[in-house]
Amino acid sequence: MTSTESPLTELVGTVAPALHAVRRRASEIVVGLAVVVTALAALALAGAAVDDAAIDTDRAVTTAEVLDASASRTLIRFTGPNGQAVVPERGVQYPRGLATGDTVTVEYDASDPEQVRVAGRSVVDGIVPVLLGVAGVWAVLGPTAVRLRRRARRSS
User: Cβ–Cβ contacts within 10 Å for residue 10, how many?
Assistant: First the structure.
């Protein structure tokens, strides 16, 4: 850095090429983001299907009390096969419509009581909301990527 250059000028000179590269590839970055969201949604459904299969393999049924129904997870308590109270750390799967204080029938993996879902619900219940979410992401990011690509072509 010469005595006439300020630290800000040097910073701009260093960052400008990176920003130019990002601007040039912005449409690809946006499409990549949409692909990542789609892949994560597919993995979430696959994980739920694996959990359901584990529950179906060694299924036990009981009633549970809803301790806390928040947006992030729904905590429940039920009595396991050994008579001990079980409060699964990750909460119950497919908790839609549950409220704190409710009593609900649950199905769980008898060999792993941490794997628990609301009785009668499965991964099938999550397919439509996940597909709608992915469609919403593509509905927003798809046109955004097209606009960015057109803008990049006009600039070149």
Answer: 12
Alpha-carbon gap, residue 112 to 156, rounded angstroms: 59
Cβ contact 67:89 at 8 Å: no
Q: Where are the domains of the chain?
A: 7-155
pTM confidence score: 0.76
Residues 45 and 123 sit within 8 Å (Cβ to Cβ): yes
The span from the CA of 77 to the CA of 65, in Å, is: 5
What is the residue type of 24? Answer: R
Q: Residue 18's pLDDT is what?
A: 79
Whole-number Å distance between alpha carbons of 22 and 40:
24
pLDDT of the residue at 2: 53
* DSSP assignments along 97-151, one per residue: T--TT-EEEEEEETTEEEEEEETT--THHHHHHHHHHHHHHHHHHHHHHHHHHHH
